Amino acid sequence: MFSGMSSDEPSPAALPEPVEDVHGDGRWMSQHTRFVQECKDAEPDVLFVGDSMIQLMRHHDIWRELFSPLHALNFGIGGDTTCNVLWRLQNGELDNIKPKVVVLWVGTNNHQHSAEQVAEGVLAVARLLTSRLPRAKVIIMGLLPRGERPNPLREKNAAVNALLRARLPRPGPVLLLDAGAGLLAPDGSLSQRDMFDYLHLTAAGYAAVSKPLSDLLLQILEETPEERRAPPV
């Protein structure tokens, strides 16, 4: 469907795994279990899934104003990697639901993986989503810049976005929305106004990235099922 790594070996970022309960309080598994239960009780049109960028969105007014009215579920867990999201989706978080759109935002926590490996991990999640939800569109949110000033992790995130952009066919069932460029000042710095810790978004930061996402979601939701279903590639 879309191109991946040339090697026959799967990317380590594309291997599903749960989070190890190093603290002993079971919080990660409890959240996953709650999401699986929500699948039994809700009929979402939009599913948001990913790490803290997704999780924290629901605590801002922008969620109530733009996304909750779209019959959305939020399956974000702080600290998750592509491996963790893959495991969650393979273990119940897609059961009993048929959203029209999935918003996927994950990858910035894959610290142990290269940009190439992270991109393949994100694509592995997208492949799973399009396989399980063949009538849905998937919006991959590009990884945001991080750190007050330019740094290797920021460069890696930008490289991941470039790899995703090159490998996703157009048109297709999976879209990349890279909404982070507007957060950077002309000198390349990030402001605490948008990212309070230079990683997580403030209300202003969420407002900046959510407007183009909301516009794209509304556009997709207005399409007919035939229009949403991507042509074979």
Tell me what you see in this structure.
One of its GO terms (biological process) is lipid catabolic process. Residues 48-208 form the SGNH hydrolase-type esterase domain. Pfam families: Lipase_GDSL_2 (PF13472). It is an enzyme of class 3 (hydrolase). There is one protein chain. By secondary structure, the protein is of the alpha/beta class. The protein has helices at residues 27-41, 52-55, 61-67, 82-90, 115-132, 152-167, 203-221, 225-228, and strands spanning 46-50, 72-76, 101-105, 137-141, 174-177. Helix 5 (115-132) links the parallel strand 3 and strand 4 (137-141). Strands 2-1-3-4-5 form a 5-stranded parallel beta sheet, sandwiched between helices. The chain has one domain: SGNH hydrolase (Rossmann fold), CATH 3.40.50.1110. The longest helix is centred in the C-terminal third of the chain and has 19 residues, at 203-221. The chain is globular and about 45 Å long.
Low-confidence stretches: none
Q: Helix- and strand-based class?
A: alpha/beta
The CATH superfamily label reads SGNH hydrolase
Spatial separation of the terminal alpha carbons: 6 Å
**CATH topology-level name:** Rossmann fold
Average pLDDT confidence is: 93
Instruction: Report the major sheet.
Output: 5 strands, parallel
Helix count from the secondary structure assignment: 8
User: Would you count the extended β strands for me?
Assistant: 5
**Major β-sheet strand ordering:** 2-1-3-4-5
